[in-house]
Design a protein that fits this description.
The protein has an 8-stranded parallel beta sheet with strand order 7-6-5-4-3-2-1-8. It has 9 helices and 8 strands. The radius of gyration is 17 Å and the shape is globular. The chain has a single domain, classed as TIM Barrel (Alpha-Beta Barrel). By secondary structure, it is α/β, with parallel strands linked by helices. Helix content is 39%, strand content 18%. Bound molecules: pyridoxal-5'-phosphate. Pyridoxal-5'-phosphate binds next to strand 8 and helix 9.
C-alpha cells in the first residue's frame, strides 16, 4: 500500500476527473484502509470477487466493474454495481439489461472501445458502436444507461502513441455525443488512464482514471 502516492494522485486531479482505485486481487484489509482515507470508488475485474468484497465492506462503496464480463457472471454484480465500464458487444448490453430489469434498476454502462494496437484488448470500433446505437434493439433497452466511453491504451513506452490513442477515444466520445447523445446529460464520461499513463489521460480529458498498482502495489497476477 502506498497511501502517500494515493494522496499525491488525488492532489493532481482536476475537478472533472475522479479516481477509481483498482483493487482487483487485493485483500479487503487494503480496501478498508483506503476507504478510511476517504476513497469510495473502487474497481474490480472479476464478478465473483467483486460480489464477495461488496458483501463484507462498507455499503457506501461505489463498485465499478472494469474487466471483460461474461454473460453468465452478470448476475453476481447486477444488484449493486455502480457502473460497468466494459460493455464490448450488443449481446452483452442486452444481457445486462435483462439482469438490471430483474433487479428493478437501471445500470449505468460505458461502451469499451478498441484503441490499442494490441489484438488482445476487447472493445467496439466506432462503426460497430454506431451500428448498435442506430439499430432496432438499443431503443428497447430501458434498464441500461449509456454514460460514455472507456478504453485502454497500448502497453508501450511510447507516450506519444498513448496520447494519440487517448485523443482517439476523446474523438469517439465527441462523435457519439453529437450523433446520439446531444440531449442526454448522462453521457459525459471518458474512462481512461492507468498507473503508467494516467497523467496523459488527465491532460486528454479523462473523467475516470483507473489506478491500481501505483496505490496498492504490484499484483502477482492480472
Ligand atoms: C488492472 C486494470 C487497471 C489498473 O491497472 P494499473 O496498471 O495497476 O493501474 C485499469 N483498468 C483496467 C481495465 C484494468 O484491468
Amino acid at each position: 500500500m502506498n497511501i502517500e502516492k494515493y494522496h499525491q494522485i488525488l492532489h493532481q486531479l482536476p475537478e472533472s476527473t475522479r479516481l477509481i482505485a483498482v483493487s482487483k486481487t487485493k485483500p479487503v484489509e487494503d480496501i478498508q484502509m483506503l476507504y478510511d482515507e476517504g476513497q469510495r470508488l473502487f474497481g474490480e475485474n472479476k464478478a465473483q470477487e467483486m460480489k464477495a468484497k461488496h458483501e463484507v465492506l462498507p455499503q457506501d462503496i461505489q463498485w465499478h466493474f472494469i474487466g471483460h464480463l461474461q454473460t453468465n457472471k452478470i448476475k453476481y454484480i447486477a444488484p449493486f454495481v455502480t457502473m460497468i465500464h466494459s460493455i464490448d458487444s450488443e449481446s452483452l448490453l442486452v444481457e445486462v439489461n435483462k439482469l438490471a430489469e430483474k433487479n428493478h434498476r437501471v445500470i449505468p454502462c460505458l461502451l469499451q472501445f478498441h484503441i490499442a494496437a494490441e489484438e488482445t484488448k476487447f472493445g467496439f470500433t466506432l462503426e460497430e458502436s454506431r451500428a448498435m446505437l442506430q439499430g432496432p434493439v438499443f431503443p428497447t433497452l430501458h434498464h441500461v444507461q449509456i454514460c460514455g466511453v472507456m478504453g485502454m491504451a497500448t502497453f508501450t513506452e511510447d507516450m506519444q502513441q498513448v496520447r494519440r490513442e487517448f485523443q482517439q477515444l476523446h474523438d469517439i466520445f465527441q462523435s457519439l455525443k453529437e450523433e446520439f447523445f446531444a440531449e442526454d446529460e448522462a453521457f459525459k464520461e471518458i474512462s481512461m488512464g492507468m498507473t503508467d499513463d494516467y497523467p496523459i489521460a488527465i491532460e486528454e480529458g479523462s473523467t475516470f482514471i483507473r489506478v491500481g498498482s501505483a496505490i496498492f502495489g504490484e499484483r502477482k497476477y492480472l
